[in-house]
Specification:
Layout: E1 4-6, H1 12-22, E2 25-29, H2 36-47, E3 52-56, H3 68-71, H4 82-85, H5 89-105, E4 110-111, H6 122-138, E5 144-145
Parallel strand pairs: 1-2, 2-3, 4-5
Helix pairs in contact: 5-6
């Protein structure tokens, strides 16, 4: 079993130290806690270490999020219409932008965006399937992880 470090605020030095000390590891980068420049600097640091790897968690659980660091990233949509976003070109654009960011960070897998589920029903499952299908269409040769974000009520 392999342990992945989910990055949090103030953890750049911790991640660097642990990956060095363990002789490798995977750090899951957080755009909520890092600017674009910090994402790239930390990714470069970690991937330059022996067996150091990075993944990117897009943290796209609530599209209308208002966290300033998160919403300043280029992949975050400037406008969002609930009924249309996942049925139209905006989802494709989101996946393309995230794929470009993943490639620039040299990630080895693609963590897909996933919407926070207030409850698990056919609509939520269809939405997850739509995201997965769009990602597979754009990244046929890249391993993907599907985000399953569950609210307290759904759990």
């Amino acid at each position: 079993m392999e342990l992945h470090l989910q990055f949090g605020y103030g953890m750049m030095e911790h991640c660097d130290y642990l990956v060095r000390d363990w002789g490798g590891g995977t750090v899951i980068l957080s755009p909520r806690d890092l600017t674009n420049d910090q994402l790239h600097r930390l990714a470069t640091r970690i991937t330059s270490l022996p067996n150091g790897r990075v993944l990117l968690d897009p943290q796209f659980y609530i599209p209308r999020a208002d966290h300033p660091r998160l919403t300043k990233h280029n992949y975050w949509p400037k406008t969002f219409q609930t009924g249309r976003f996942f049925a139209g070109p905006q989802l494709s654009e989101l996946i393309q932008n995230l794929l470009r960011l993943n490639n620039s960070l040299n990630t080895r897998m693609f963590i897909l965006p996933g919407i926070l589920a207030a409850r698990i029903d056919d609509d939520w499952l269809d939405l997850q399937r739509t995201i997965l299908e769009e990602a597979h269409a754009q990244t046929p040769n890249m391993e993907v992880y599907q985000t399953i974000a569950l609210s307290e009520e759904a759990i």
